[in-house]
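User: I'll paste a sequence; please echo it back and then give the predicted structure.

Assistant: Echoing your sequence first, then the prediction.
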Amino acid sequence: MTRVAVVDMGTNSTRLLLADVADGTVTALERRSTVTRLGEGLEATGSLGEEPRARVLRALADYREAMDALDARVRTGVLTSAVRDAVNGAAFHARVRSEYGIDAEIVSGDEEARLTFLGATLTRATDQRVLVVDIGGGSTELVVGSSGVVEFHVSTQVGVVRHTERHGDDLAAIARDAGATLREALPDHPPTRVVAVAGTATMAASMDLALEPYDPDAVEGHTLSLDGLRTRLDQLASMPPDRRREVPGLHPDRAPTIVAGITILIEILEAAGADTVEVSDRDLLYGRAFEAGS
Protein backbone atom coordinates (compact mmCIF):
# COMPACT_ATOMS: atom_id res chain seq x y z
CA MET A 1 0.00 0.00 0.00
CA THR A 2 1.20 3.51 -0.86
CA ARG A 3 -0.12 6.67 0.77
CA VAL A 4 -0.37 9.35 -1.90
CA ALA A 5 -1.16 13.07 -1.87
CA VAL A 6 -2.23 14.70 -5.13
CA VAL A 7 -2.79 18.43 -5.58
CA ASP A 8 -4.56 19.85 -8.63
CA MET A 9 -3.83 23.55 -9.16
CA GLY A 10 -6.48 24.49 -11.68
CA THR A 11 -7.76 27.72 -13.14
CA ASN A 12 -10.69 27.98 -10.73
CA SER A 13 -9.83 25.77 -7.75
CA THR A 14 -6.98 24.09 -5.91
CA ARG A 15 -7.80 20.60 -4.72
CA LEU A 16 -6.21 17.91 -2.57
CA LEU A 17 -6.72 14.14 -2.51
CA LEU A 18 -5.03 12.07 0.20
CA ALA A 19 -5.48 8.38 -0.54
CA ASP A 20 -4.16 4.88 -0.01
CA VAL A 21 -3.44 3.03 -3.24
CA ALA A 22 -3.26 -0.76 -3.20
CA ASP A 23 -4.12 -3.54 -5.65
CA GLY A 24 -5.47 -1.10 -8.24
CA THR A 25 -7.84 0.58 -5.76
CA VAL A 26 -7.75 4.22 -4.68
CA THR A 27 -9.22 4.70 -1.19
CA ALA A 28 -9.74 8.35 -0.32
CA LEU A 29 -8.72 9.39 3.19
CA GLU A 30 -9.21 13.14 2.93
CA ARG A 31 -10.30 15.55 0.21
CA ARG A 32 -10.24 19.31 0.14
CA SER A 33 -11.19 21.92 -2.42
CA THR A 34 -10.58 25.66 -2.30
CA VAL A 35 -11.81 28.10 -4.93
CA THR A 36 -8.61 30.07 -5.58
CA ARG A 37 -9.36 31.55 -9.04
CA LEU A 38 -5.74 31.28 -10.21
CA GLY A 39 -6.86 32.26 -13.70
CA GLU A 40 -8.53 35.49 -12.58
CA GLY A 41 -7.50 38.25 -14.99
CA LEU A 42 -5.46 35.90 -17.18
CA GLU A 43 -7.72 36.42 -20.19
CA ALA A 44 -6.91 40.14 -20.18
CA THR A 45 -3.28 40.21 -19.03
CA GLY A 46 -1.71 36.91 -20.09
CA SER A 47 -0.15 36.56 -16.61
CA LEU A 48 -1.02 34.99 -13.26
CA GLY A 49 -1.91 37.82 -10.91
CA GLU A 50 -0.21 38.38 -7.56
CA GLU A 51 -3.34 37.85 -5.45
CA PRO A 52 -4.50 34.72 -7.34
CA ARG A 53 -1.04 33.20 -6.86
CA ALA A 54 -1.15 34.11 -3.16
CA ARG A 55 -4.53 32.37 -2.78
CA VAL A 56 -3.11 29.15 -4.22
CA LEU A 57 -0.02 29.31 -2.01
CA ARG A 58 -2.17 29.78 1.10
CA ALA A 59 -4.16 26.69 0.13
CA LEU A 60 -0.94 24.73 -0.41
CA ALA A 61 0.28 25.70 3.07
CA ASP A 62 -2.91 24.26 4.56
CA TYR A 63 -2.69 21.15 2.41
CA ARG A 64 0.92 20.53 3.42
CA GLU A 65 -0.21 20.30 7.05
CA ALA A 66 -2.75 17.63 6.04
CA MET A 67 -0.09 15.72 4.08
CA ASP A 68 2.22 15.80 7.09
CA ALA A 69 -0.52 14.72 9.49
CA LEU A 70 -1.34 11.65 7.40
CA ASP A 71 2.31 10.98 6.53
CA ALA A 72 1.85 10.94 2.75
CA ARG A 73 4.93 9.25 1.25
CA VAL A 74 4.28 10.30 -2.35
CA ARG A 75 3.41 13.96 -2.94
CA THR A 76 2.58 14.87 -6.49
CA GLY A 77 0.51 17.41 -8.34
CA VAL A 78 -0.62 18.90 -11.61
CA LEU A 79 -0.89 22.45 -12.87
CA THR A 80 -3.31 22.87 -15.74
CA SER A 81 -4.74 25.45 -18.12
CA ALA A 82 -3.97 28.73 -16.34
CA VAL A 83 -0.33 27.83 -15.74
CA ARG A 84 0.04 26.41 -19.25
CA ASP A 85 -1.20 29.66 -20.75
CA ALA A 86 0.47 32.25 -18.48
CA VAL A 87 3.76 33.93 -19.38
CA ASN A 88 4.83 33.57 -15.74
CA GLY A 89 3.49 30.02 -15.39
CA ALA A 90 6.92 28.36 -15.37
CA ALA A 91 8.12 30.59 -12.52
CA PHE A 92 5.03 29.80 -10.46
CA HIS A 93 5.53 26.09 -11.15
CA ALA A 94 9.12 26.27 -9.90
CA ARG A 95 8.01 28.01 -6.70
CA VAL A 96 5.40 25.34 -5.97
CA ARG A 97 7.99 22.58 -6.33
CA SER A 98 10.76 24.25 -4.32
CA GLU A 99 8.74 25.74 -1.45
CA TYR A 100 6.08 23.07 -0.87
CA GLY A 101 7.84 19.80 -1.65
CA ILE A 102 5.26 18.75 -4.23
CA ASP A 103 6.51 16.84 -7.27
CA ALA A 104 4.18 18.84 -9.50
CA GLU A 105 4.25 19.16 -13.26
CA ILE A 106 2.55 21.34 -15.81
CA VAL A 107 0.47 18.84 -17.75
CA SER A 108 -0.60 19.24 -21.35
CA GLY A 109 -4.26 19.30 -22.24
CA ASP A 110 -3.88 15.81 -23.69
CA GLU A 111 -2.36 14.48 -20.46
CA GLU A 112 -5.07 16.18 -18.43
CA ALA A 113 -7.66 14.44 -20.58
CA ARG A 114 -6.00 11.03 -20.19
CA LEU A 115 -5.77 11.31 -16.39
CA THR A 116 -9.39 12.49 -16.20
CA PHE A 117 -10.61 9.50 -18.20
CA LEU A 118 -8.58 7.14 -16.02
CA GLY A 119 -9.96 8.60 -12.79
CA ALA A 120 -13.56 8.70 -13.98
CA THR A 121 -13.55 5.10 -15.18
CA LEU A 122 -11.54 3.36 -12.43
CA THR A 123 -14.69 1.99 -10.78
CA ARG A 124 -17.10 2.37 -13.68
CA ALA A 125 -17.95 -0.26 -16.30
CA THR A 126 -17.06 1.15 -19.72
CA ASP A 127 -17.44 -1.80 -22.07
CA GLN A 128 -19.38 0.55 -24.34
CA ARG A 129 -18.00 3.84 -25.66
CA VAL A 130 -18.28 6.73 -23.23
CA LEU A 131 -17.63 10.46 -23.49
CA VAL A 132 -15.92 11.84 -20.39
CA VAL A 133 -16.23 15.62 -19.96
CA ASP A 134 -14.09 17.78 -17.68
CA ILE A 135 -15.23 21.41 -17.60
CA GLY A 136 -12.51 23.45 -15.94
CA GLY A 137 -11.82 27.09 -15.33
CA GLY A 138 -9.70 27.65 -18.41
CA SER A 139 -10.17 24.56 -20.54
CA THR A 140 -12.59 21.73 -21.18
CA GLU A 141 -11.36 18.22 -21.92
CA LEU A 142 -13.38 15.79 -24.02
CA VAL A 143 -12.31 12.15 -23.93
CA VAL A 144 -13.84 9.15 -25.72
CA GLY A 145 -12.94 5.58 -24.90
CA SER A 146 -14.10 2.15 -23.82
CA SER A 147 -12.77 -0.68 -21.65
CA GLY A 148 -10.15 1.65 -20.20
CA VAL A 149 -8.69 2.55 -23.59
CA VAL A 150 -8.77 6.15 -24.86
CA GLU A 151 -9.56 6.42 -28.55
CA PHE A 152 -9.98 10.19 -28.81
CA HIS A 153 -9.16 13.16 -26.63
CA VAL A 154 -9.00 16.90 -27.08
CA SER A 155 -8.45 19.92 -24.86
CA THR A 156 -10.40 23.05 -25.79
CA GLN A 157 -10.02 26.69 -24.77
CA VAL A 158 -13.47 26.64 -23.18
CA GLY A 159 -13.71 27.23 -19.43
CA VAL A 160 -15.94 28.69 -16.76
CA VAL A 161 -13.53 31.42 -15.65
CA ARG A 162 -12.42 32.21 -19.20
CA HIS A 163 -15.97 32.50 -20.54
CA THR A 164 -17.35 34.31 -17.50
CA GLU A 165 -14.64 36.96 -17.87
CA ARG A 166 -15.30 37.10 -21.61
CA HIS A 167 -19.13 37.25 -21.57
CA GLY A 168 -20.37 37.73 -18.01
CA ASP A 169 -23.81 36.11 -17.62
CA ASP A 170 -24.80 36.57 -21.28
CA LEU A 171 -26.09 33.05 -21.89
CA ALA A 172 -26.49 33.48 -25.63
CA ALA A 173 -22.95 34.77 -26.05
CA ILE A 174 -21.47 31.98 -23.92
CA ALA A 175 -23.47 29.37 -25.83
CA ARG A 176 -22.40 30.73 -29.23
CA ASP A 177 -18.75 31.03 -28.30
CA ALA A 178 -18.37 27.76 -26.39
CA GLY A 179 -20.78 25.81 -28.57
CA ALA A 180 -18.95 26.55 -31.80
CA THR A 181 -15.63 25.42 -30.31
CA LEU A 182 -17.06 22.28 -28.73
CA ARG A 183 -18.94 21.16 -31.83
CA GLU A 184 -15.81 21.50 -33.91
CA ALA A 185 -13.77 19.60 -31.30
CA LEU A 186 -16.07 16.60 -30.83
CA PRO A 187 -15.43 13.58 -33.04
CA ASP A 188 -17.98 12.38 -35.57
CA HIS A 189 -20.64 10.20 -33.94
CA PRO A 190 -19.69 10.83 -30.30
CA PRO A 191 -21.09 8.46 -27.64
CA THR A 192 -24.42 9.40 -26.14
CA ARG A 193 -23.31 7.99 -22.78
CA VAL A 194 -21.71 10.98 -21.08
CA VAL A 195 -19.87 11.11 -17.76
CA ALA A 196 -19.02 14.57 -16.43
CA VAL A 197 -16.46 15.37 -13.73
CA ALA A 198 -15.27 18.54 -11.95
CA GLY A 199 -17.00 21.48 -10.28
CA THR A 200 -19.77 22.34 -12.73
CA ALA A 201 -21.12 18.79 -12.87
CA THR A 202 -20.70 18.03 -9.17
CA MET A 203 -22.33 21.33 -8.17
CA ALA A 204 -25.23 20.67 -10.56
CA ALA A 205 -25.72 17.27 -8.91
CA SER A 206 -25.39 18.79 -5.44
CA MET A 207 -28.06 21.38 -6.26
CA ASP A 208 -30.29 18.68 -7.74
CA LEU A 209 -30.01 16.76 -4.46
CA ALA A 210 -30.04 19.94 -2.30
CA LEU A 211 -26.99 18.67 -0.43
CA GLU A 212 -25.86 20.64 2.60
CA PRO A 213 -23.07 19.89 3.21
CA TYR A 214 -21.66 18.50 -0.02
CA ASP A 215 -21.53 14.69 -0.08
CA PRO A 216 -19.19 13.12 -2.68
CA ASP A 217 -20.72 9.67 -2.21
CA ALA A 218 -24.20 10.99 -3.00
CA VAL A 219 -22.95 12.89 -6.04
CA GLU A 220 -21.02 9.93 -7.48
CA GLY A 221 -23.17 8.30 -10.15
CA HIS A 222 -26.04 10.80 -9.91
CA THR A 223 -27.80 11.32 -13.25
CA LEU A 224 -28.88 14.73 -14.54
CA SER A 225 -31.28 15.26 -17.42
CA LEU A 226 -30.74 17.79 -20.17
CA ASP A 227 -34.19 19.29 -19.52
CA GLY A 228 -33.40 19.55 -15.81
CA LEU A 229 -30.13 21.35 -16.55
CA ARG A 230 -31.96 23.83 -18.80
CA THR A 231 -34.46 24.52 -16.02
CA ARG A 232 -31.68 24.95 -13.48
CA LEU A 233 -29.81 27.33 -15.78
CA ASP A 234 -32.89 29.49 -16.27
CA GLN A 235 -33.35 29.69 -12.49
CA LEU A 236 -29.72 30.63 -11.81
CA ALA A 237 -29.54 33.14 -14.66
CA SER A 238 -32.61 34.95 -13.34
CA MET A 239 -31.02 35.48 -9.92
CA PRO A 240 -28.71 38.33 -8.90
CA PRO A 241 -25.21 37.01 -8.09
CA ASP A 242 -25.65 37.36 -4.32
CA ARG A 243 -28.83 35.27 -4.40
CA ARG A 244 -27.01 32.44 -6.19
CA ARG A 245 -24.71 32.07 -3.21
CA GLU A 246 -27.71 31.02 -1.14
CA VAL A 247 -28.91 28.22 -3.45
CA PRO A 248 -28.96 24.90 -1.53
CA GLY A 249 -26.22 22.58 -2.74
CA LEU A 250 -24.17 25.27 -4.49
CA HIS A 251 -20.91 26.28 -2.84
CA PRO A 252 -20.97 30.10 -2.58
CA ASP A 253 -17.53 30.40 -4.20
CA ARG A 254 -18.84 28.60 -7.30
CA ALA A 255 -21.74 31.04 -7.74
CA PRO A 256 -19.89 33.52 -10.02
CA THR A 257 -19.05 30.87 -12.66
CA ILE A 258 -21.87 28.33 -12.41
CA VAL A 259 -23.96 29.96 -15.15
CA ALA A 260 -21.14 29.65 -17.66
CA GLY A 261 -20.43 26.10 -16.49
CA ILE A 262 -23.96 24.77 -16.93
CA THR A 263 -24.25 26.56 -20.28
CA ILE A 264 -21.10 24.76 -21.45
CA LEU A 265 -22.37 21.39 -20.17
CA ILE A 266 -25.67 21.86 -22.00
CA GLU A 267 -23.83 22.71 -25.23
CA ILE A 268 -21.81 19.49 -24.95
CA LEU A 269 -24.87 17.31 -24.36
CA GLU A 270 -26.72 18.89 -27.26
CA ALA A 271 -23.73 18.43 -29.56
CA ALA A 272 -23.41 14.78 -28.53
CA GLY A 273 -27.14 14.10 -28.88
CA ALA A 274 -27.33 13.01 -25.21
CA ASP A 275 -30.41 13.44 -23.01
CA THR A 276 -28.68 12.70 -19.70
CA VAL A 277 -25.27 12.94 -18.06
CA GLU A 278 -23.83 10.79 -15.29
CA VAL A 279 -21.85 12.76 -12.69
CA SER A 280 -18.58 11.48 -11.26
CA ASP A 281 -16.78 12.95 -8.27
CA ARG A 282 -13.63 11.09 -9.37
CA ASP A 283 -11.41 12.74 -11.94
CA LEU A 284 -7.74 13.41 -12.67
CA LEU A 285 -6.92 13.44 -8.94
CA TYR A 286 -7.87 9.77 -8.80
CA GLY A 287 -6.11 9.04 -12.08
CA ARG A 288 -2.90 10.67 -10.86
CA ALA A 289 -3.13 8.93 -7.46
CA PHE A 290 -3.64 5.55 -9.12
CA GLU A 291 -0.54 5.96 -11.30
CA ALA A 292 1.61 7.48 -8.54
CA GLY A 293 0.78 4.69 -6.09
CA SER A 294 0.93 1.74 -8.48
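The first helix runs from residue 42 to 45. The mean pLDDT is 93.
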